[in-house]
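Handout, page 2. Input:
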Amino acid sequence: MREHGGNLDAAVQRFGGRIEGWIDLSTGINRQPYPVGEIEPHAWRALPSRSEIEALHDAARQAYATEAPLLAMAGAQAAIQCLPNLSRKGRARILAPTYNEYGGVLSAAGWDVAEVSGLDALAGADLAVVVNPNNPDGRRHGMADLLALLPRVGRLVIDESFADALPELSLAREAGQGGLLILRSFGKFYGLAGLRLGFVLGADADIAALSAIAGPWPVSGAAIAVGRRALRDREWASATTARLGRDCARLDVEATAQGWRLVGGTPLFRLYDVGDALAAQDKLARGRIWSRVFSQQPGWLRLGLPGDEAEWSRLVAALAG
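Output:
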């Protein structure tokens, strides 16, 4: 498996304890999740019907403010796995540094893959990938700049997995144009990554091709039930967006007190230059708090946001050593 956050098994192996005793801040998953509530037995017992899946799709269109064709899948990662099969192998260019699954999946499928550092360098690619806002540094790109790139590439993939709290960045309204695919994650903002739910927005032909690859039941009945309920709850989404903004500022204050420098981030995680990231990770791990480090950037440490006040208190204590 490629380098990821969420690897609590590694934390336990190195530092001890039990998984349930750790606070996992190595991911960008909201630690105050959407309240799932009761799930009807039908969601567990029956295969998802076409009407149920379409109801989920309608809820997603409403949440993402779009009328474009879309497809629910088992997380944004499931869509990434399908990308190599949407067209003939060719030149894939990825705006980097970013989420490492794109390069790995495309390379394994025989594509000519290269990472580039600027939008202009994506021009001429058969497949171009931009994560917006970016993971892990939070780099953001405006709608006009991304749309200007569209006629210069064969297919443009915009990964908006961390865009729920930044709706002004989203190209969802532009989805449906030929050559444009937009990936959305459900689990991060709603704090339900284990549900395995995400969406792909695009033109009719691309969505039909992805649907054929994914098969007749791409998501579970439970994912449909919870997803419909959560995506329609705009009051919860608005309150969560506001809270995340406050919590980001709070975490930045604590980090600054440690002498750490903010590199970037999104409303779901922050990235700091801490000098020696492994030493900082070890310090936090002694308080059973897991963070994300990057082998190619030894000074970078990424932290998600604590959930309740008990988690904030544990983080402050761990930072104090």
